[in-house]
Model the fold of this input.
Amino acid sequence: MSAAEDAVLRALGAVLDPELRRPITDLGMVREVAVEADGTAVVGVLLTVAGCPLRGTITGDVEAAVAGVPGITGVRVEMDVMTPEQRNRLKEQLRGPGAERGVPFNRPGSLTRVYAVASGKGGVGKSSVTVNLAVALSRRGLRVGIVDADVHGFSVPGLMGITQPPTRVDEMILPPVAYGVKTISIGMFLPENQPVAWRGPMLHRALEQFLTDVFFGDLDVLFLDLPPGTGDIAISVAQLLPGSEILVVTTPQAAAAEVAERAGTVAAQTGQKVSGVIENMSWLQLPDGQRMELFGSGGGEQVAARLTSALGTEVPLLGSIPLDVRLREGGDAGSPAVLEEDSAAGAELRRIAGQLARRPRGLAGLNLGVTPS
Ligand SMILES: Nc1ncnc2c1ncn2[C@@H]1O[C@H](COP(=O)(O)OP(=O)(O)OP(=O)(O)O)[C@@H](O)[C@H]1O
Ligand SMILES: [Mg+2]
Done:
């Protein structure tokens, strides 16, 4: 290989596969590199599957990376598709050699913290909290994923602005990435607005498939956005991910707090840990600076205190998020409010994410039988 070709190859090391988030040079995706006499670089790229929706992105990224190499006058990207053997090698490389199928987050060595975001009542802001915490943690440099476990009422793709379907590499599903967060939702597999009329067993299977067939890679944090209540999905999550912890979302309202408490006390039966309570819609800041408590006050404190005494372990109130038009607008636009410096709700969500980020990675939710002093 000539020095110029070597330089091109090194530049390609900075090109990440948009879904796998690893250098294409590490993934066996660079078939050949040649530099012609006139300085044109020819890069042969192997796509995982034909019709890869991201071929345009990859082409652009390769062109941009290679164009900066000294002496290169032009770039030609030639696309091809991996053979089944090449794909198998890639899958094995991603999963680790000889890895058995199953939920990777349950393997003994898994250091991923899994948070199931739950509430009693619907519409209290679970999905908004989930995506904003995920994006805030990703911004802090953590590797983050979201599973939209609200199969009937999925909303995560919209909140994350994802319209692109997942790529399938044989049985492996590569989740779309938005704001650095790997995200999967049943909504990505359905024609627009088609309802999902499934009962418990099908819901369980869908969730199981997301957890086994979707390739998230090594995550620091995985969020599950649950449907409201303490139904089938909450129980499936406890079964499929026994190490998952629960984040309870409530509004300040007494009626919401009572049902939120039930969503938390389920943990006593499933053996899960409740890692905290988040109060949402806590107040509305009026133009004169006053706080109007539209939904009353104290719900978050109440749920935290009651869960602490019911479960016998400290369940903290992690934060209180004000009502904020920016949060709703950001949700509608697919651009989470935590990305906006001056959104009040965004700031509080960033603060809550900071508390989660400080918790050590690993042995998530496992009861080690010791009490830290
Ligand atoms: N702090 C807030 N300020 C303004 N609007 C908010 C706030 N929190 C949530 N919302 C809005 O309230 C609505 C419900 O929020 P969201 O969908 O996140 O709740 P949910 O608990 O996931 O609902 P569901 O139970 O249907 O899954 C959305 O329109 C969202 O934009
Ligand atoms: Mg929701």
Q: What stands out?
A: The two ends are 60 Å apart (CA to CA). Confidence is low (pLDDT under 50) at residues 364-373.
